[in-house]
Amino acid sequence: MLAFLWRRIVSSALPLLVVILGVFFLARLTGDPANLYLPLSATPEMRAEFAARNGFDQPVVVQFFDYLGQIARLDFGESLRTAQPAAQAVLQAFPATLQLAGTTMLIAIVAAVVIGSLAAYRPNSLADRAASLLSSTSASVPDFWFAIMLVLVFSVTLNWLPTSGTDGTAAWVLPILTLLIRPFGVLVQVVRGSMVSALSAPYTKVARSKGADEKRVIFGHALRNAAAPALTVAGDLTVSMINGAVVVETIFGWPGIGKLMIDSILERDFAVLQAAVLLTALTIFALNILIDVCYALLDARVRQGVTA
Amino acid sequence: MTNGNGDHRDGTDGGVDGGPGFASAASAAEAPAPQPPRLFALLLKDRFACLAALVLVIIGAAAAIGPFLLGELATEQNLRSTSLPPFTLENGWSFVLGSDSLGRSVAARLVVAARTTLLVAVPAVVLSLTLGSVWGMWAGYHRGWRESVSMRIADVILSFPSLLLAVVVLYVFSPSVANLVLVIAIARLPVYVRTARAESAELQSRLFVDAARTFGARSGDIIRRHVAPTVLPTLLTVATLDFCFVILTESSLSFLGIGIQPPDLSWGLMVAQGREELQTAWWTAVFPGLAIVITTISATTLASWARLATDPAQRWRLTVPRRRRRAKASTEEVPA
């Protein structure tokens, strides 16, 4: 098990490193912060002083190694925009994104398991066709447009729900509904597909022939075996959600990490951008390893390969 | 999008070329005389796939011809006809879908924006499909270090926040259509590399590839003549599905203000502009979004049909029930 974990950690560490490296250099390609933070009439001396104060006068490679040294001391620099420590800005925004992503994925998984299993129980039935229509439509709808339609119907016309903010349960409804459509559509299809093959597999027949009741057959035998592919896909979907529900956070004014990232790119706030990308990359890194471990525990064949 | 449809037709033709070779290799035992698959006839038999193809052709034609006919109408501002409501012919056909706050026809703008949207999506898909499949087949055929290095590169691209890449390109280079195509193509490359690698790694140990190797064929020729025709149907299905994803990506980027820039138009940008007028003129935000939904649903429908039609082991699902249904229909017609 430890060897398996170690192999996974080593092979996932390379993308992590490249992302940190890439963000550092690409961010500096977007332009000189002095153009944004100093007035147009700034003298060359003022610009030089600004660059020296923020360390931008050094060669980029030197800046990078300084940055690595700072990370090792858990110092993530200061925001150019607010002079607040970058770590603090990022840690304030991250819980909002995590809560949103977590709630959404929980709802999506439960709904997809129920609807996908119902659809797979009788393939080609009315329920199955309704589920596949629903899931394929929801995977084709642009989320930003769906969000605006929700605002149009529930906020502008009916005046039931707030258009933005995080106060109260009502404010959570529209962001979650918007975030839900893509993972829900994809997961229903995955659960349905693997449940169809699990329900026609020999072990299901054995379970039925032993007289197990349908509930046990579906949830105890079929679903347990059909869970692995759904788990992998759910993991990928969570990863993309952590990487920034930028669209949803922008439309609903949700103070999350995606909005923070895009704002700090636009404002050339390098320290905050780097800290945000580092935190999300680390979370995704940990999540990927967790998914691999779950996958191994769930599938007896993989588990044997891991422990052997 | 005559361009796009042309590519797609070429693609299905490629599938036909690949078909017999695949059938003889994979299921020679079950099908002694493989029927040449006539994809077009199959398409006509499936109502939904046919409708989806028709919708895509109409959108393609509108994008190709529309801007020449409606280009002026789309940019013409008329402050006497601002925010006209849709679905009435009182203001003439050009305002059948209403007008925005500057009095421009929404219908004409939709047609002009279709061109930009397809000019980004089609080249991006073609570029990543071509590069990704060649790279993936090469990596999967040779295995070893070439395979592992390619997979690591794909991992890195996948884990890189593509939004950041898009913003950088916007600031460093100009936010032109060509740069947007390049960013999206790079971001989608791993999908094709992974699919092509997996299929080709499995194929390179098959008997017919071994036979070709025994005859002394060079690896490039084996990939081109024996591996590519078999992998192509799968890749084309992935590409059709990816077409939706690319349209959604482009429109999200344009919506966020880091894709297509005014005065150019795209559907995503139109939704962003319509969002400001949501209270007074909802139609300016609703219709461009509907255009995206209709296009992506058509592409998904066509993709799931193509997956069945290009797979010799699954094709019966399209032919058998239809024939039965047709036979039933004709017997019912006889007494009438």
TrEMBL record, chain A:
The transmembrane segments are 12-31, 100-121, 133-158, 170-191, 270-298
* UniProt GO MF annotations: dipeptide transmembrane transporter activity
The answer to keyword Acyltransferase applying to this record is: no
Which compartment or compartments is the protein found in? Answer: Cell membrane
Q: Where is the ABC transmembrane type-1 domain?
A: 94-291
- Which Gene3D superfamilies would you find in this protein's record? MetI-like
Organism equals Streptomonospora alba
InterPro entries recorded for this chain? BPD_transp_1_N, MetI-like, MetI-like_sf
Membrane topology type, per the record?
Multi-pass membrane protein
| Higher taxonomy | Bacteria, Bacillati, Actinomycetota, Actinomycetes, Streptosporangiales
- Pfam family membership, one: BPD_transp_1
Which key words tag this protein in UniProt? Cell membrane, Membrane, Transmembrane, Transmembrane helix, Transport
Q: What is this protein called?
A: ABC transporter permease
Sequence similarity: Belongs to the binding-protein-dependent transport system permease family.
Please provide one cellular component term from the Gene Ontology annotations of this protein: plasma membrane
